[in-house]
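Students often ask why we bother predicting the structure of a whole assembly rather than each chain alone. The short answer is interfaces. A chain on its own may look different once its partners are present, and contacts between molecules only exist in the joint model. In this exercise we take two input lines together and write out one structure for the complete complex. Read the inputs first and try to guess which parts will touch.
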Amino acid sequence: MATRDDSSPEDRLIARFFAPIAIHPGALGLSDDAAFIKPPTGCDLVLTADAIVGGVHFFTDDAAPSVAGKALRVNLSDLAAKGARPLGFLLSLALPKDTGDDWLTGFAEGLRSDAVLFGCPLFGGDTVRISGPIAISIAMFGSVPEGSMVRRAGAKPGDRVFVSGSIGDAALGLDLRKGVAWKLSEPQRQHLMSRYLLPQPRNALAEAVRMHASSAMDVSDGLVGDFAKLCRASGVAADIEAEKVPRSNAAKAVLAAEPAMGETALTGGDDYEIICTVPAAKAESFRATAQAARVAVTEIGEIKAGEGARFIGPDGKPLTFKRASFSHF
Amino acid sequence: MATRDDSSPEDRLIARFFAPIAIHPGALGLSDDAAFIKPPTGCDLVLTADAIVGGVHFFTDDAAPSVAGKALRVNLSDLAAKGARPLGFLLSLALPKDTGDDWLTGFAEGLRSDAVLFGCPLFGGDTVRISGPIAISIAMFGSVPEGSMVRRAGAKPGDRVFVSGSIGDAALGLDLRKGVAWKLSEPQRQHLMSRYLLPQPRNALAEAVRMHASSAMDVSDGLVGDFAKLCRASGVAADIEAEKVPRSNAAKAVLAAEPAMGETALTGGDDYEIICTVPAAKAESFRATAQAARVAVTEIGEIKAGEGARFIGPDGKPLTFKRASFSHF
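Now the answer. The structure tokens for the assembled complex follow.
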């Protein structure tokens, strides 16, 4: 980022909103061309970048702190799925001319609180003007002990398939946000909508994943499509029992009232859960470690030899889906 | 980035245009949630991110390879000024719906050739839709031996001030691009315009800077304003002899015809040169090392105790400027 001095509007914006939250000494108060960090000894760096754009990945009237949180958390979720510990992030912010100080204040506060919550400080970045919607790009770096990043490739026949948290909430929450009306209690509505608004990345599960999983990825574009990618990368097949896919009570209420939403719940985006495969001999230890980390994990199926991930319905037959993945693109 | 499979338009785009150029093994062919790299032993990581936006930082009809090159090189320039060796980069690309395959082919080719030229491979990133101009954000990481990143702070009274290459070309080139007509030869016109179109970052000078400079920064928003930031960060003053600021022959031709452009040439943006301060005892060695690296460096002044960087005119009086820096913001 640029300097703390007041020679340009960008400098003033950085000095006012972002320098106060760049508390790592290597960030140099965002007053230099670059930041520095000493990487942990004996570790590999894990690198990821995800962007979110107004009108595409969030509603332009979403509260600024939750927009900041979403931008950070979609990246944190990638690190979690790779078994990595966050080290920090760089922010690129493209702002339309009419972006107000209130929005920036809220955005910076959202960044600050999540940076503290997830132990992932701001190191630098850039702020630019755009004649279009707000675009937020975050590059995040984390660490794993050398050679231990968990990949999508690595699942073996016999491995158990686990998924964290609950699946489908965010996709249903997005439908609610768009005005779809289901008979739900207000807390149920709020639960689903908040799951869309602000991901809950499973960074608390990262260590358990790293110690046990043969493969893992984050579920961001729909469980069915994402898990198909993992199976393809690993060169394996899988049978998933659709009934075992974990559901929140709110999602269960929607699906009871409208069973056709089952497909949306399995293929919709924005879950930000982790799906991973664990060798059978390590499954018990994985469960215990996850429980100690206070992250729910549910066994939903098993890896097989062959090709293709099947989701098996209650009648024992594979489900078919109109589309396996959600795409913003 | 997403997987190599063909389940979404984004996946297909990444597989077609970007996976082939992600040749570092840690990039995993852009087929995983994240990439990994083993950081060099005994080194600090140097982190920077800069974004460029269509209609702000480049013309929307600029050739796609040079847009890619500019996006990469504005970041490479930051690493060079910090004395860092590039390790790699992450790319976030926000694309309007009508972005054609031709543009993407050219953009990927521009990225590929500069990634090879500067030894700075693509590790991953993200591709998203935007209802607005193309926005390109690059996060770049480099390395320096532990504790040796050159900062803006560090200049001391008596240090010599050096600047690389030539100053003002890009600002004059931008004026030409906007239609300003000066009497220049065609090669002179082309030189100035190409300096705006595609920065020539001084990464070949990074090692010399790291071994000799007490402070350094890249000149991207105008020499006068940027050097004022360096002096402020270092808590020093400086006297710069404006006549010694290095000029290309093309810039000299403009200034001879139109002396009023002198201010633009000293305060305009997009030079992507390095300004640094070198203790007097190391100046000769710096010069020799720069020469061995085939990067021109010119001594333009001296650091003094006090506050404020003065640019002294041929009459011995400090120049005054309408504005010290260029700002896109």
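Check your guess against this: Chain A touches chain B through 78 residues (CB under 8 Å).
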